[in-house]
């Protein structure tokens, strides 16, 4: 990934507004799929020209890997070896399969189905991201997403951190009409997600039965999007199927999604940072000078040694 040029062009579909409910600004399909290392077959939905930084902030990148079958492999590792990050957080969600993480700040963990790993790179870490060894040996389906959550300028050089969030830590709120919402970050109907965030973020993982309506209340100034992982949903007068991303307009506090069939939907929302985004490879900073500093710091070993 190179430095992104921000486009102000948005895909406009419908502007039919019910009072208090956000309209849909655009429905976005996946981009071309690519391998991250040899373990993660993903589409990078953003950054992209159609989903510019200011419409998805505080998120800066979303890689989504729909369910994919991996054959058993008796030995070897599948994934990405040691690489640096600075200036943001990586948030990895696994619904199927198992991802193992290790970083040079001393954190390590495995996330399995329903777990979330919230890693704060901030001032800088090296980490590796592989399929869990047992999963590699046994094979199976991998279904995951990785988000890059931007940090405000004042926190970009904060100490690195790590939050292993297991499925048991995540509160579940029933949805009228059938299904449930898992509250990973922020608040939903009185339930508070376990993730500690630097800026206000609401992250929900919803399983909806056909006909169920998910209603979420978030400030209208927050950016908001929903990814359909399974099934088909309706938002306003638009519909979106598996693999599509719904970008909501910032025109009302309420967000509504109705399941037209059994559906799995991830809702991502947060307060936009309103700061310049200069992203280059594994670094997300505010200025080109800060990117140059990050590269220089990595080259002179300032991010610490890489473990064996
Ligand atoms: Mn990484």
Query: What series of H and E elements makes up the topology?
Result: EEEHEEEEEEEHEEEEEEEEEEEEEEEEH
| Gyration radius, rounded | 19 Å
Mean pLDDT: 93
Number of helices: 3
- How much β-strand is present in the residues? over 45%
| Order of strands in the sheet with most strands | 1-22-19-24-17-14-13
Rough shape?
globular
Any ligands, ions or cofactors bound here, and which? manganese (II) ion
How many DSSP E strands? 26
Helical content band = under 10%
Largest sheet: 7 strands, antiparallel
First-to-last CA distance: 27 Å
Low-pLDDT residue intervals, each spanning 5 or more residues = 1-12
Q: In terms of structural class, how would the helical and strand content be classed?
A: mainly beta
Summary tags:
seven-stranded antiparallel β-sheet, 308 residues, disordered N terminus, binds manganese (II) ion
How would you characterize the overall build of this protein?
- The chain is 7% helix and 48% strand.
- A hairpin with a 4-residue loop joins β13 and β14.
- It contains 3 helices and 26 strands.
- Strands 1-22-19-24-17-14-13 form a 7-stranded antiparallel β-sheet, with no helix packed on it. It has a 7-stranded antiparallel β-sheet with strand order 2-3-4-11-6-9-12. Strands 5-10-7-8 form a 4-stranded antiparallel β-sheet.
- With 308 residues, it is mostly beta strands.
- It is globular.
- The protein has helices at 53-56, 133-138, 288-299; strands at 24-28, 33-36, 40-46, 59-70, 79-85, 88-96, 99-103, 108-111, 116-120, 125-131, 140-150, 161-165, 172-174, 179-185, 187-188, 191-192, 201-208, 213-217, 223-230, 232-235, 238-241, 245-248, 254-259, 263-270, 278-280, 283-285.
- The chain binds manganese (II) ion.
């Amino acid at each position: 990934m190179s430095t992104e040029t921000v486009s102000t062009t948005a895909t406009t579909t419908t502007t039919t507004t019910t009072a208090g409910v956000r309209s849909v600004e655009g429905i976005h399909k996946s981009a071309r799929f690519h391998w991250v290392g040899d373990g993660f077959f993903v589409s990078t939905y953003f950054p992209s020209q159609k989903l510019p930084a200011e419409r998805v902030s505080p998120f800066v990148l979303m890689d989504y890997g729909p369910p994919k079958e991996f054959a058993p492999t008796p030995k070897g590792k599948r994934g990405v070896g040691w690489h640096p990050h600075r200036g943001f957080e990586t948030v990895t969600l696994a619904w199927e399969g198992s991802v193992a993480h290790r970083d040079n700040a001393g954190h390590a963990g495995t996330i399995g189905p329903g777990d979330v790993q919230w890693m704060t790179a901030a001032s800088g870490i090296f980490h590796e991201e592989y399929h869990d060894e047992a999963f590699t040996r046994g094979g199976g389906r991998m279904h995951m997403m990785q988000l890059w959550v931007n940090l405000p300028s004042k926190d970009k050089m904060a100490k690195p951190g790590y939050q292993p969030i297991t499925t048991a830590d995540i509160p579940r709120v029933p949805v009228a009409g059938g299904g449930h919402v898992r509250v990973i970050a922020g608040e939903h109907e009185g339930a508070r997600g376990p993730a500690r965030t630097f800026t206000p973020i609401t992250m929900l993982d919803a399983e909806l039965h056909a006909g169920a309506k998910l209603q979420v209340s978030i400030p209208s100034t927050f950016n908001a999007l929903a990814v359909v992982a399974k099934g088909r949903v309706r938002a306003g007068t638009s519909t979106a199927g598996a693999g599509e991303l719904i970008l909501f307009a910032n025109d009302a506090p309420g967000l509504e999604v109705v399941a037209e069939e059994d559906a799995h939907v991830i809702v991502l929302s947060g307060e936009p940072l309103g700061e310049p985004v200069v992203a280059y490879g594994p670094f997300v900073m505010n200025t080109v000078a800060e990117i140059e500093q990050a590269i220089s710091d990595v080259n002179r070993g300032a991010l610490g040694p890489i473990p064996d």
